[in-house]
Amino acid sequence: MNQQLTAYVNGRFTPLEDATIHIEDRGFQFADGIYEVVACFAGTFLDLQPHLERLQRSCEGVRIPLPCSLEEMATLVQETYKRNPFEDAMVYIQITRGAAPRSHLPQGELTPTLIITSRNLPKPSDAKLASGVKAITLQDIRWKHCEIKSIALLASVLGKQEAALKNADEAFWLDEEAHVLEGCATNILAIIDGVLVTHPLDHQVLGGITRNMAIRVAKEHGLSVEERPWKLTESGLTEAMMSSTTNAVMPIYCINEQIIGDGKPGKTTMQIRGWMLEAMDALRRA
Ligand SMILES: Cc1ncc(COP(=O)(O)O)c(C=O)c1O
Predict the structure, then answer these.
(1) What residues contact 55, with CB distance under 8 A and at least 6 apart?
(2) Is the C-beta atom of 185 inside 6 A of ligand 1?
(3) pTM (two decimals)
(4) pLDDT the model gives residue 1
(5) 186 lines ligand 1 (CB under 6 A)
């Protein structure tokens, strides 16, 4: 079935197939922009406010003025969701510095470009959930402001390609001392000696909203959590999981050639996933 999709582009809603931006948009010319992705369950958004606040921080981080207030943005996001035919959706917000004749230094006052789209929220397959996913590691080649959700994703595109060539689902970036930072499009958390461990929030990782949720539900259920640098060689490592808006948490059974734990989705990982899905189902019923 060919469903008519609608996008919001610079002040108006338009059929997705007609939605265009200028070829001199700085997003296209320089990847001079930022983005956000938020999930919606049957009309209720998951953590919309934290997503919008991260959008604001990303804009501030690259000196792009917010094109509208966060309240107006929330309304546009909801409206874009409603104008598209998906019950559970992922809504993308992308903001660039705007269109201007090509020059590294932005000239004069530019009007930021704002586009919003809504697509079906992809769910991990049952097969993937039953087995967990395979991943690789790569030396981090990204810029030093990973806390900003920049649209400059070339390193992550290459990382994902590298992973796919090795039949893996995700590539995790390592710092120079082999600490595990995050994935191309996910955060990574591990169970080490029974503690939920993940890299602390700094310039090397995105402050994932799902990472926060995993930490929150883990603490609520009495698990210890440590935000600290960690390595794959730690002897107490028994489980690993990746988190993102489209995955909740997903178990990882193998990284490079290293089997994690017993090579099956970890018990604590699946508990955390269960607690998160409960919260998402509650949104659906809201
Ligand atoms: C580099 C990176 N880290 C982490 C995440 C997970 O963030 P969130 O949980 O907010 O979706 C993403 C999501 O796109 C990402 O691109």
Answers:
(1) 34, 36, 66, 70, 73, 93, 95, 149
(2) yes
(3) 0.97
(4) 46
(5) yes
